[in-house]
Write a structure and sequence with these properties.
The complex is a heterodimer.
Chain A: H1 21-26, E1 41-47, E2 53-59, H2 61-65, E3 69-74, E4 106-107, E5 113-119, H3 122-131, E6 133-138, H4 145-148, E7 164-172, H5 175-180, E8 184-195, E9 204-209, E10 217-221, H6 226-237, E11 244-247, H7 263-275, E12 279-282, H8 285-291, E13 295-306, E14 312-324, E15 350-359, H9 373-391, H10 395-402, E16 411-412, E17 418-419, H11 424-435, H12 437-450, E18 454-464, H13 472-477, E19 486-492, E20 498-502, H14 511-523, E21 530-533, H15 551-578, E22 585-588, E23 591-594, E24 597-603, H16 604-613, E25 625-631, E26 640-650, E27 656-666, H17 673-692, E28 724-727, H18 745-762, H19 776-786
Parallel strand pairs in A: 1-12, 10-11, 14-15, 20-21, 27-28
Antiparallel strand pairs in A: 1-5, 2-4, 2-6, 3-5, 7-15, 8-13, 9-10, 9-12, 13-14, 16-17, 18-26, 19-20, 19-25, 22-23, 23-24, 26-27
Helix pairs in contact in A: 9-18, 14-15, 17-18
Chain B: E1 2-8, E2 11-17, H1 23-30, E3 49-52, E4 55-58, E5 71-73, H2 86-93, H3 103-116, H4 122-128, H5 140-157
Parallel strand pairs in B: 1-5
Antiparallel strand pairs in B: 1-2, 3-4, 3-5
Classes of the chains: A alpha+beta, B alpha+beta.
The structure holds FE2/S2 (inorganic) cluster (2 copies).
Chain lengths: 791, 158
């Protein structure tokens, strides 16, 4: 099912096939691993096999003598590279860990780096890595967050004297007063398990002295954030920022895991500088499992207070968030991105939020598709279902009673965010219709009555999220180090072709196509004539990159303003050449004509050539034709939607089947509905995978048990159904194009829909929760526990 | 070093390879055919899928020496000049790719699937592509693309 597509006159709104596809479908790609520079040396990292240990000795003698080896380094060789890469110290008293490029005294998680080998060949580098003799004195590891906070627990960072990293609070309204008025209080503990992002392209870094440019080092890296990375690399290494060029070529997926400053990037730069030659490192998949950051990993204690008629009064949330061993770029801030979202789409008088970050001997956590908001949405959407069960109300009816009504927008919710627009009624009505909600409820009733061993559950998720981070001032108030603006330059080249330079950095989102569509409508040039330049600080110097569903929400605004500025300038030149006043110029579809006399006109091509030659431009107008804009968004963007899942659960085996999934999203104006739908599908798969398949497991010693694709269950086509999707369109009023973000919505909405469906199926058996992933074992155990059997 | 002669994308290639060299590394690094990608080290992801004598094979799971005397087609040799294979066309038409990293393998596996079963059901497509992982698309549009290509190819041969 696809969205109804209105006939469009412009390019915005059309499901145009992507420009990117031609190269991707014929193998003419430029992944970092494809970059092969003459004289390249290969980098291999020697990693700790244990979670926590003192480094007694790292003997590199044998490795240095091995075939093809150019250099072997340990932490002692890069003593200065032990700063923090975290840009978000969330509280004044947060204990900020360092993040060493190579460990010197201790290793803090299995996968931590103890040495680096550089050799003339990839295989030889790996062979020599095996010859590095690492003597580690194992220490007790701390794996569980609650254990970590107990007195006498082994310490990840001894200097802090505790594994407590920070506690952040946000009291909104008076929860105690709200609770005192309540007839019903429901409390649950949810475990939002640790996930491993697993982009299909592993990370990779190539760094090399730039040919012919005295001091420049170019760093090609599979990253979402070339611009931010350049700044941080300069700050960390002391290499002047103007000598660093960061390039994100074709990037094979991100999902947050490439929103990071990784040691392999820092060392890539330093090794290229030190050795004066190109160096290359490509992550193996097994390495990715331990060396790239993980996502989620929270223990959520949530309580909801309501009156007996189902009016929600307030929500109280206490989180424990696993930081892992080090704070990386936004490790401590990630759970707080959900802070404002624990009231979801509901009106209430109080929201009490507290989050405690905890260090453990595990891979650091950080942003993974949704970053904090999936966790929040999971908790609120789950607890609302539990409240409905407690009250004996139909869960959708309970939601309708409490959600913000269409006519109440703009609405300032309890955490202080002002949702500009939304229409939960419309999205829900459409979703229920596509789902066959009433028929499925009837079938559920029949199955319950007949005692069918396969029970049916209806899972609901009526969600919103805040994305498109964000007004720079708001980020500053939240103690985030950088801003939230985005940049675009649109240049009309002398020959009339258009170069659109964006600060966003795509990795599958189709920016080349969608940005061309926006610019096409504004400057009146065909989509094919616009070339989008991105992801290279040398060619696109200004930008804040791509994460948090911000590229269209924020970057789209910059394209619009840049395009309008270009048109304004073109009008001045056209007016001058046509010898009329600029007010007499009419602009339509790339042609600038004299009002009432369309025979007298100039095309954009003519004007751009005139601006280039500059023989005859008006006084006060500078030569060349371009428009530039750096735009700070007015607010976050608040997409929403209603997702419904029909779950069949075999009560004897615990086997779960996703029978039908309906997603109706509202992301405002859609620039390219084809791309929007693809984003929804991908998000759904990841959110459903959290609910049903994925989970990083550690043993008590801190060894990752799910360390390869054989053990960590990424769903294949055989594990997922086709989805039924549609959109309602409620344009944003705070974003000039009327757009909202869509990159994360599917991942945010779907996890609670699936689990709510499973619990709904099993409710008559007394089940009120099931651990994720809802594998047959976990579901079977939940049934056994509810039945009073051994779990 | 072992000498091998392999036809790759229609061209006979000769090489001297270490016995441990993986076919995918030979293709990518020795021949410079970097269209084929590598996504794992455990033969799970299928990104590296190529056709060997017309059948799909994970090229990370085969040694270069084993390819001696065989015929290999990669994503770079699938189109007939400028004319794309119907599977390539359908992937674009149906938006069956986002980042495109799984795409070379996914396309080659789909070509093999359709040569085995020209008229697959949705379930057969899903099961047939079980060895190829995609993290971006949720598979919905990939499945649609394969079905679209099947219809197209059937129409063309009818
Ligand atoms: S690279 Fe993953 S199966 Fe070959
Ligand atoms: S398109 Fe990105 S992994 Fe398939």
């Amino acid at each position: 099912m696809t969205a109804t597509i209105e006939p469009q006159t412009g390019a915005i709104g059309r499901p145009i096939k992507r420009k990117e596809d031609a190269r991707l479908l014929t193998g003419k790609t430029n992944w970092v691993d494809n970059i092969q520079l003459p004289g390249t040396l290969y980098v291999h990292y020697v990693r700790s096999s244990v979670a926590h240990a003192r480094i007694v000795r790292v003997d590199t003698t044998a490795a240095k003598a091995a075939d093809g080896v150019v250099a072997v380094y340990t932490g002692a060789d890069f003593p200065e590279q032990a700063g923090s890469t975290c840009v978000w110290p969330v509280t004044d008293d947060i204990k900020m860990s360092h993040y060493p490029a190579i460990c010197t005294d201790k290793v803090l998680y299995a996968g931590d780096v103890v040495a680096v080998v550089v050799a003339t060949d990839k295989y030889l580098a790996a062979d020599a890595g095996d010859l590095v003799d690492v003597d580690l004195e194992p220490l007790p590891a701390v794996v569980d967050m609650e254990e970590a906070l107990k007195d006498g627990a082994p310490l990840v960072h001894e200097g802090f004297g505790t594994n407590h990293c920070y506690t952040a609070t946000m009291p909104c309204g008076d929860y105690a007063a709200a609770k005192a008025k309540a007839d019903v209080v429901v409390k649950r503990r949810f475990i939002n398990q640790r996930l491993i992002p697993n982009t299909m392209e592993p990370r990779a870094v190539v760094a090399a002295p730039s040919v012919g440019m005295a001091d420049e080092i170019a760093v090609w890296t599979s990253t979402q954030i070339p611009h931010v990375l350049r700044v941080v690399l300069a700050l960390l290494t002391g290499v002047p920022e103007n000598n660093i060029r960061v390039i994100a070529p074709d990037v094979g997926g991100g999902f947050g895991v490439k929103l990071q400053i990784y040691r392999e990037e820092v060392l890539g730069l330093l090794l290229a500088k030190k050795l004066g030659r190109p160096v290359k490192w490509v992550e193996t998949r097994s390495e990715h499992m331990v060396a790239s950051h993980h996502g989620r990993d929270q223990i959520q204690d949530i309580e909801i207070a309501a009156t007996s008629d189902g009016t929600i009064l307030g929500v109280d949330v206490k989180l424990l968030a696993d930081m892992g061993a080090y704070l990386q770029i936004i490790t401590p801030g990630t759970p707080l991105l959900g802070m404002f979202m624990y009231s979801g789409i509901y009106k209430m008088e109080a929201l009490n939020f507290e989050c405690t970050g905890v260090y453990t001997n595990k891979t650091p956590t950080d942003a993974y598709r949704g970053a904090g908001r999936p966790e929040a949405t999971f908790a609120i959407e789950r607890i609302v279902d539990e409240l409905a069960a407690e009250l004996g109300m139909e869960p959708m009816e309970l939601r309708k009673k409490n959600w913000i009504k269409h006519e109440e927008f703009p609405y300032t919710q309890i955490a202080g965010l002002t949702y500009d627009t939304g229409n939960y009624e419309a999205a829900t009505a459409r979703a229920m219709e596509l789902f066959g909600y009433d028929e499925l409820r009837a079938e559920q009733k029949a199955r319950r009555e007949s005692g069918d061993k396969v029970q049916l559950g209806l899972g609901i998720s009526t969600f919103t999220e805040m994305c498109g981070l964000a007004p720079s001032r708001t980020l500053g108030a939240l103690k985030y180090a950088a801003g939230g603006w985005e940049h675009c330059t649109i240049r009309a080249l002398p020959t009339g072709k258009i170069e659109l330079i964006t600060g966003t950095s795509p990795h599958g989102q189709g920016h080349e196509t969608a940005w061309s569509q926006i610019a096409s409508d504004i400057i009146g040039v065909p989509v094919e004539d616009i070339e989008v330049v991105h992801g290279d600080t040398g060619r696109a110097p200004l930008g804040m990159d791509t994460y948090g569903s911000r590229s269209l929400a924020v970057g789209g605004q910059a394209i619009k303003v840049a395009g309008e500025r270009l048109v304004e300038k073109a009008k001045l030149i056209a007016a001058h050449q046509l010898e009329v006043s600029p007010d007499d110029i009419e602009f339509k579809e790339g042609v600038y004509s004299v009002k009432g006399d369309p025979e007298k006109h100039k095309t954009l091509g003519e004007i751009s050539w005139a601006a280039f030659a500059a023989h005859n431009v008006p006084d006060g107008v500078e030569p060349t034709l371009s428009g530039e804009a750096t735009v700070d968004p007015q607010d976050f963007s608040y997409p929403h939607g209603t997702h419904l899942a029909a779950m069949e659960v075999d009560t004897e085996t615990g086997k779960v089947t996703l029978r039908k999934y309906v997603a109706v999203d509202d992301c405002g104006v859609q620039v390219n509905p084809l791309i929007v739908e693809g984003q929804v599908h991908g998000g759904l798969a990841q959110g459903i995978a959290q609910a049903l398949y994925e989970g990083a497991l550690y043993d008590a010693d801190g060894n990752l048990l799910t360390g390869s694709m054989g053990d960590y269950l990424l769903p294949s086509a055989a594990d997922l159904p086709s989805f039924i999707t549609d959109r309602t369109v409620t344009p944003s009023t705070t974003h000039p194009l009327g757009t909202k973000g869509i990159g994360e919505a599917g991942a945010i909405a779907s996890t609670p829909a699936i689990i709510n469906g499973i619990v709904d199926a099993l409710r008559p058996l007394g089940v009120n929760d099931v651990f994720m992933p809802a594998s047959p074992q976990n579901v079977w155990r939940a049934i056994q526990a509810a039945q009073g059997g051994a779990a | 070093m072992t000498h091998i002669d392999v036809t790759v994308d229609g061209i006979t290639r000769h090489g001297d390879v270490e016995p441990r060299r993986l076919l995918v590394h030979w293709l990518r690094e020795d021949l410079g055919l970097v269209g084929t990608t590598v996504g794992c080290d455990t033969s799970n992801c299928g990104a590296c899928t190529v056709l060997v004598d017309g059948r799909s094979v994970k090229s990370c799971n085969m040694l270069a020496v084993q390819a001696d005397g065989h015929e290999i087609t990669t994503i770079q040799g699938l189109a007939d000049g400028d004319e794309w294979h119907p599977v390539q066309k359908a992937f674009k038409e149906c938006h069956g790719l986002q980042c495109g990293y799984c795409t070379p393998g996914m396309v080659m596996a789909s070509v093999d699937l359709l040569s085995e079963n020209p008229d697959p059901t949705e379930e057969e497509i899903r099961n047939g592509l079980e060895g190829n992982l995609c993290r971006c698309t949720g598979y919905h549009n990939i499945v649609k693309a394969v079905a679209t290509a099947a219809a197209e190819m059937k129409g063309a041969s009818a």
